[in-house]
Design a protein that fits this description.
Layout: E1 9-14, E2 19-24, H1 38-45, E3 50-56, H2 66-81, H3 88-103, H4 111-116, E4 119-123, E5 126-130, E6 135-141, H5 147-152, H6 160-179, H7 182-188, H8 195-199, H9 205-214, E7 219-222, E8 229-232, H10 238-251, E9 256-262
Helix pairs in contact: 1-2, 1-3, 2-3, 6-7, 9-10
Bound molecules: adenosine-5'-triphosphate and L-homoserine (HSE).
C-alpha cells in the first residue's frame, strides 16, 4: 500500500544527458551514477534525459519502499516533463525498471501503490487497486536489514496448516482494505510463514509489537522486508501507539523514528 508519509521529492529539468543529485535521509548510501540509481533506469526507459534532484524522505533499506518512492516519482515527473502521455497504469512497468537496478529483476510490489495510491495487489497478471483509507504508524529503527538477507531467511516450505491460516488472513486483510476497517486489516496481518522468520532480524520486534497492541493497535507486522514495523490502528489511538513503539525500541537500546501516517494517494505533481 501507499503511505501518505514519509515521501521523496524529485525535481526534474530537461538536459542532454541524465545527471543525479541526492539530498535528504540516507543520501550517503545512494549512488548518483545514473547506471546505479533507480531514477537513471526510469529516465532511460522513458527516453527522457534530465537533471534529476532527489530529496529523500524515505530512508534506503527501510522496508518502506525507498527505491520505489524515487522510481515512481521520477516516472510521473519525466512523463509530464516530456509529454509522454502514459497513464499511471502504463507507468508501472517503467518504474519497475528502476527496481531492477537494485533487486536484479523488475517488480511492481512497491512501485504500483506509489504510482496508483491506495492498497494494491501486484501479481504476474497485473495490478488490482483498492481505494483504501486506514490509519497507520510506521516505526523505523536505526537498524540495517538488507532486502537480500530478509529474503534469504524466508522458508522455502510451509505446512498446509500455516498456509491455510496465512491465506485466510490475507483474504481478511483484502476485505478489510475494501471496507476501510482497521480491525479486519489488523487481523489480516497475522502471517505465520514470512513474518516470524523476518522478525528475528529486527532487534526488539516482539516487545515493540506487544507494546503497540497494548496501546490499541489492531495489528502489527514487519513492513516489506523490514526493519520498519507497521501498526494499523484507529486514528484516535495513533499517537499512543507511536509513543509505545518508540519507547519499546528505546528500552532495547535501539534508536527509532515513528511516522504517524495513513494509506496515501500515491505520487503527486507539484509545479515549481
Ligand atoms: N533513488 C534511490 N533511492 C533509494 N535507494 C536507491 C536509489 N537508487 C538506488 N538505490 C539503492 O537501493 C537500495 C535500497 O533499496 P532496498 O530495496 O534495499 O530498500 P527499500 O527501497 O527501503 O525497500 P524495501 O521496502 O524493498 O525493503 C540501496 O542499496 C540504495 O543505494
Ligand atoms: N515485498 C518484498 C520487498 C519489496 O522490495 C519482500 O518482502 O521481499
Amino acid at each position: 500500500m501507499a503511505l501518505d508519509r514519509p515521501a521523496d521529492v524529485v525535481h526534474v529539468e530537461k538536459a542532454d544527458r541524465t545527471t543525479i543529485e541526492v539530498t535528504g535521509v540516507g543520501r550517503q548510501y545512494i549512488p548518483t551514477d545514473p547506471d546505479r540509481n533507480v531514477v537513471g533506469a526510469v529516465a532511460e526507459a522513458l527516453d527522457a534525459p534530465a537533471h534529476i534532484r532527489i530529496d529523500k524522505g524515505v530512508r534506503p533499506s527501510s522496508g518502506l519502499g525507498s527505491s520505489a518512492a524515487s522510481s515512481a516519482a521520477a516516472a510521473v515527473a519525466l512523463n509530464e516533463l516530456y509529454d509522454r502521455g502514459l497513464s499511471r497504469e502504463e507507468l508501472v512497468p517503467v518504474a519497475a525498471e528502476g527496481e531492477a537496478v537494485v533487486s536484479g529483476e523488475p517488480h511492481a510490489d512497491n512501485v504500483a501503490p506509489a504510482l496508483l495510491g491506495g492498497f494494491t495487489v501486484a501479481t504476474d497478471d497485473g495490478v488490482t487497486t483498492v481505494d483504501a483509507d486506514i490509519p497507520l504508524v510506521a516505526c523505523l529503527p536505526e537498524i540495517a536489514v538488507s532486502t537480500r538477507d530478509a529474503r534469504r531467511v524466508v522458508p522455502s516450505r510451509a505446512s498446509i496448516e500455516d498456509m491455510v491460516h496465512t491465506v485466510g488472513r490475507a483474504a481478511t486483510l483484502a476485505v478489510g482494505m475494501c471496507r476501510r476497517d482497521p480491525e479486519l486489516v489488523g487481523a489480516g496481518m497475522d502471517d505465520r510463514i514470512v513474518t516470524p522468520a523476518r522478525a528475528e532480524l529486527i532487534t526488539g520486534y516482539h516487545d515493540v509489537r506487544e507494546a503497540a497492541l497494548e496501546a490499541g493497535a489492531e495489528g502489527v507486522t514487519v513492513s516489506g522486508a523490514g526493519p520498519s514495523v507497521l501498526s494499523v490502528c484507529h486514528a484516535s489511538d495513533r499517537t499512543r501507539v507511536a509513543g509505545a513503539m518508540l519507547e519499546a525500541f528505546d528500552e532495547t537500546d535501539v534508536a527509532a523514528r515513528a511516522y504517524k501516517t495513513r494509506v496515501g494517494r500515491g505520487a503527486e505533481i507539484f509545479d515549481i
